[in-house]
Amino acid sequence: MTSRKTDDFMAMKGAGYYSRATIGAKHVMDNATGLILDAIDRQPPADDGSVFTMTDMGCADGGTSIDMVGRVLGDIRDRCPSRPIQMVYTDLPRNDFSQLFQIVHGLTDTESYASHIDNLYVMASATSFHSRIVPPGSLNLGHSATASHYITEVPAQIEDHVHMVGASGEVRKAFEVKGAVDWENFLLNRTAELASGGLLALFNFGIDEKGRYLGHTGGVSMFDTFNEIWRGMADEGTITQTEYAATNFPQVYRTVDQFTRPINDPESTVYKAGLRLEHVETRVVPCPFAADFKSKGDAASFAKSYIPTLRSWSEPVFLRGLSTDRPADERAMIVDDFYGRYQDRVANSPEGHGMDYVHCYLICRKV
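RE: above sequence
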């Protein structure tokens, strides 16, 4: 039986593909850097010579967070000249850490902060954020963006869709329950890692007050389109019905209440561990490729630039759904065909397509 555990197969597309294709994820972090800087300003760290540790959990190749991390660590360096800074990038074992270090150390065309901040130590941990990453009480600033919607494993098979946003009834409930368990565990691990007064800055995919979520903000629904094309390939026999049903994203999109409940409830284990909510809000960051299409009107160019941002994070899920009895090159051809069909659909009828980013932004502190 194929393992359903997320860390057995999940990784963002490597060799720099991820950060080149997902400029929208960078916009999310760049635009929200002020939330972190404001939190630091509310309770400035002491310049006491101790190590200041920051994590970027679910970092992929580090390109999307490079400017945000640079601004934050630059602020810490200005405030705390005597403190060594330890920057720990974390992701799953299959992540392209070689590309991460090339980007962070300025070996690509991406400008990096690393050479501008002295007494800086950059390292990485191939450890899931569903586990502890750094020693207890050693973390000063934990950050994660566009990542903690991933759960440890798929709790139930969605027979008629590829994502929990399209599930209903007991299957939908199974995903939400699993999402709640993993979220509480995530928060407990971070709270154990945090030093007293340490911060968590979490920018998470979620469902906002208007029911909007990633790629579902009033136009063509991205996950429904994924499902329609994949199911169509099953109906025509390109893939089997079993393969279609086995293709489920190991993700849960939470509401604001689901995000904040374990932090605000005095009876929860998270609250009792000392984590407190300082700020919460939702934002929609427009899809940059759709915005470019609106200004230029070039449908073919839009489709060609848009599909890679979908592929950069979703490809492993569709590959995983295919039977391992198929040769690897056959599975790759099927997935290429899938994204080719999506690209053709956008090129032929571009209106309404786009992957607007819908996030819940949380700033928390350990008391």
